[in-house]
Each structure stands twice: as C-alpha cells, then as structure tokens.
C-alpha cells in the first residue's frame, strides 16, 4: 500500500512540477519582480490565516483510530468554526494592510486570497482521511487538476495585464478545482456534516500540533513580510524567486514523500523499526537534496537565466544561500513525524516554538542588516535544529550519532560525480547559458545513479517498489 501511494504521489508531483516549470517560464517573462513581491506578501499574510484554519485538524483525523461520521463531522465543524471567522477578519482588515505597505493592491490581494479559507474545509477533511488510508489516487488527481487550472488561469490573466491579481485569481480557481475533484472521488464511505459535540477535543489537540504549525509558519514567512516593509517589493520579488526555485525541489521530491511518512512511521511496532524507517527515509531524501544543492549553488545564475530570464539574475545570491540552508534542513526533515507518531505533542510544540522564536528574532534584523547577512545568520538556526534533533532522537528512538553519520555518508559519496561534472562545466563556461550544460548534467545524473546502484542497491529497489534482496 505504501509503495502504491508513493507511486501516485510521485507521479502527481512530477506532473505538477512539469506544469509549474512550464508556467513559470512564461509568467517570469510577463510579470515583474514588483508583481511577484506584491503577491508574495499577500500570500504570506493569508498563509498565516490558512494555518489557523487547519489548526492541526488534518493531523487529528490521521491520528484517530476511526474515521466515523461522528469523528469527521466534529473535525469538519471545528474547521468551519476556525476558517470562516478568520476569512471574514482578513477581508475586514484589507484596507489596513494596504495602508501599512502603502500599496492598496496588497490589501485587495489578501481579500481575494481569503476566499480560499471559505472553500478549504470542504476538501481538507476528505483529503485527510484519504491520506490516512494511503489512498493517494484522488489526491494526485486533485493536485494535478489544481496545478493545471492555476497555471492556465494565471497565464491568461497575466497576458491581459492583471499583474499580481493574476496569481490571486488563479489560486482561488485552483482551490475550487481541488475541492471539486476530492468531493467527486470521496465516495459514500467518507461522509460528514455539522456536529458541535466533541469539537473541544479537536481544539485541545490543535493547541499543541496546530499551534506549533502556526508559529512555525509565521517564523518561516515573517522575512517576506518584513522585506516588503523594510526594503522594497522588488527585493522581495527577487528573494521570493530564489525561494520558489527551492520550492520546485520540494514539489518534485519532498512534497511527494512527506505526507506518506506519518502513516508509514505509525506502522512501526517498536523503537528499532521506527529508527530503521526514519534512517531509510532520511537517506533517500539526502540522495536527492545533496546533488540538488551542489547544482543550484554552483550554477545559480545559469538556472535563473534559463527558468526566468535576465531580469531575475540578481536573485542568484539569495538562491545559493537558501539552497545551503535547505540541504541542512533535509538532514532532519522527518523529525516532526517521529514526534507525532510517538505522541510527543508537547515536545513537538516546544521544539517548534523555540526554533521559530529564534528565527523571528534573526528575521527582525532585516531592518538594520542587508538581506544576505540575515540569511547567513539563519545558518545558526539550521545548526541548532540539527543538534536538537540528534539529541532528541537518541532519547526517542535510541538513534546514535554514529548511525546518523553513516546515513549521511552514502549520499555524500554518490554526489562526488555531480560535483566533478558541475565543476568541469563551470570551468569551461563562457556565458550564462550554453547547450553543453545539459550534457554535463546528464553525465552528472548518470554518475549519481551508477554510484547509488553500486553502493546502495536496496534504496533503488525501495524507490522502484521492489523487495530488496
């Protein structure tokens, strides 16, 4: 079941990735950094509200043993009670947002994006049950449908000079598509209505898991909110473009795997099996994240030129720093899932809040320091997270630092060939883009696959859905 879910999840993510790259190639040549900056700050603000909307309800459904009408109705009601008042509040304060940023468009973009919160509860409950049952076929269809509608709508609106509004209108249309497809596929076994009884239990669970997610989201996106005020929308657009390039990797690899991890870890019967599952998943992710980081940091300007055009080259300095940060993060990517399946909700909250406070403090220095220096300071957060996780997992699942280091070694060795071919290309490179780049990347990829096959064939068997011999 896990492998089938993994297949659907990966397939949908790669289809959406291709669509997003194609639409990005077009939109980056129509929209300006200021347009992207406007939408980024609006999306960051409504994203905070969206986190309040979920409030850990999806995790609550996955954690509950049954998916009865009563359980789902309680979760649905709790979702409505949170989402709709917040949506109305966001719409009410749109003039204040426009005034704060001295851009009326920022407020109106928040107003439009708030409609997503009215729609989301109608799809999120069924999606959580499907995730719990590892039924990723309808979720995959919904993700692809959302991406196709979003991409097509944003291109059409952008072509007709709607600017930043293009992305906002497309986002709402994408949400409508997701809810429609999930509703079509949910079937009679997933049913729910309005039931106030038991909502307090959902809220109690959400105080820890949902509360930590909210705080973490604010900390992760506060820099965008600060940049728009402290520097310029153009700078925010460039930073956002660097971050969105990292997001392409998240969509293609991380987002395809991460939703499957909590149910997969939950099947572990003891500490040893959970430790093995954690190390295996971490190693698979590192096989992708390390070479990705090497390529992005070494060829950042070439990548930006190919994907977005010459007007985005100044994003290169941000892209390299963000790629390094993300690579460190992937070393501990699945720690939160371990906390969830081991019922360490309070530790989960403590962990998230501590690092988020650290990030908020460092992020606020954007008012006195250049953006590059602020991003460099974020490496302190990444290092702190790594040390915390190593210490915590030793207690939770008896994971020694020696085993953790062994997990890192093979992905590092597999990336040596990537480093060599990227360095060779960079050495002979005479312009931002040359067709030889694709040849060197192909050779780097073949080298990477060959080394993995030689030193860690069981990982290839797992990814392909075969039993390791």
Automatic annotation (TrEMBL):
Superkingdom, natural source: Bacteria
Protein name: Lipopolysaccharide biosynthesis protein
Organism lineage: Bacteria, Pseudomonadati, Pseudomonadota, Gammaproteobacteria, Alteromonadales
The keyword Cell membrane belongs to this UniProt entry's keyword annotation: yes
Keywords on record: Cell membrane, Membrane, Transmembrane, Transmembrane helix
The keyword Nucleotide-binding is annotated on this UniProt entry: no
Membrane-spanning residues: 12-30, 36-52, 72-94, 106-129, 141-160, 166-185, 284-306, 318-335, 405-425, 437-455
Cited Pfam families: Polysacc_synt_3
Cell compartment(s), UniProt: Cell membrane
InterPro entries in the record: Poly_Biosynth_Transport
Family the entry assigns: Belongs to the polysaccharide synthase family.
GO cellular-component term (any): plasma membrane
UniProt membrane topology term: Multi-pass membrane protein
